[in-house]
Amino acid sequence: MSSCGGGKCNSAPADTFSVSIDSFANGATDISQTPSIQIKFTQAVLNVNSTTVMLYQQGASSKLKEIGSPIPITDITAGSNNSYTFSPLAPLASNTRYVIALSNGITTLTGIALTPTILNFTTGDSITPTVSMITPANNATNASLSQIIQLQFSESVTNVDTTSITLHAGSTTGAAVALGNITAGSNNSYSFSATSPLSSSTTYYVVLSNAISDIAGNNQLSATSFSFTTGDFIAPTVSMITPTNNAESVSITPSITLQFSESVMNVDTTSITLHESSTTGIAVALGNITAESNNSYSFSATSPLSPLTTYYVVLSNAITDIAGNPLSATSFSFTTNLPAWGDVGTAGFSAGAASYTSLAIASDGTPYVAYADAGNSNKATVMKFDGNNWVTVGSAGFSAGAESYTSLAIAPNG
Fold it and tell me: What is the DSSP letter of 65?
C-alpha cells in the first residue's frame, strides 16, 4: 500500500516476520542427541511441514546444496504462540553441528513469504554406550572350553578391564572365573578368555558393570550380563573297582565292577571283553553286563576262571558319553588265586575206610577216585562225582582180590 500527496509518495511498512529456535538458543552447543526442537514465528504462519522445515548435518561446507540429504524428522506439531515442535527420528551424531533450514514456502496468513532462514546448533554426547556379545552369541550353547569372548560397544569406551568385566559360573553372582588380559580390537570391540579351560556343560555369565563409560563420561545405565553354555568335549574315563587293577589272589569266580566318570552308552559284551594271559589272549565268555548306580557296571564269566592265571578286561572306544565323546581304549588286569581245598559232595562217601586212593579228572571236569575199599575186603572200587553225589562206577569191590597202590587214569575219549 502507498499514498501520494503534495507530490510525494509514502510506502507503508513491509509486512515482514521472522523465526527463531525457542527450545534453545540459536548456535547453542552441547545439545542432546535426541532433541525436541521447538521453533517460534513472530506471527501466525502457514505451510510449516517437512518440506519447508528441514534438518541437515553440517559438515565442512556451509552451503546447503553441498551438505547432503535432509535428516528424517517426526511430524511437525503446532503449539501455542505460533510455535512448532519436531524431533529427529534417530539419535543425532555426537559433537556435530546441525542446521535447520526454513524455506520461503512458509507464509503469513496474508501470503507474505518467509525470508529463507538458517538456524543451527551443535550436539554434545548424551547417549550412553550399549554393548553386545559377538562371540559367542548371547545364550549360545556348545561353546568351547577355551572360548574367546568378544564384546562390541556402540561407541568408544573407557574403563574396560577385569574389574568392570567379570566371568561367573552358574549365575551372575556365581564363582568368579579368572580372566586373562582384555584386548581392544577394531570397531570398539574387546576380546578376552579365561586363564584355564572352562568346565563342560556349564552356563557362564559375562557381567559388565556401569563403571564402563564413553569418552564423554556417559556410563552404562545399568549393569549388563550375557550368558553362554559350554559343550561336552571331555571323554569319559573308567576305573576297575572290583577287583582293583593288578589285584592278585582273585577268586576264580569274580564279579567284576567298572565305574565310569560320567554316563556312557554302548556298554555290552562287544565293547567290554575278558581275555586270558594278554589283552589279545583267549576270550572268556561273559554273562550279561548289568548297569549299577553311579555309572558303574558289573559282570562275570559264565564259567570259573583258571587258577593262578592273569586275566585282562579290555574296553574299546565304542563306549561313548552322551555327547558322543569316545572312551580311550583301556585295559585292566587281575590274577586269580589257587582255590582252597574243600569237600566235593558229602564227606565220608565210601562204604568203609578207603586207602591207596588215586584221583583223576576227566576232560569234562568230572572227578573220579579209585581206592582200596575196606567195606569190600579192600578190593578196588571206583566212584565219580555226578555234580550232586558220589556214585559207583561199575560194581564196588570189582577186583579179584585186595588192592594196594592204585593208580587211576582216564582215556582221552573218556
Answer: H
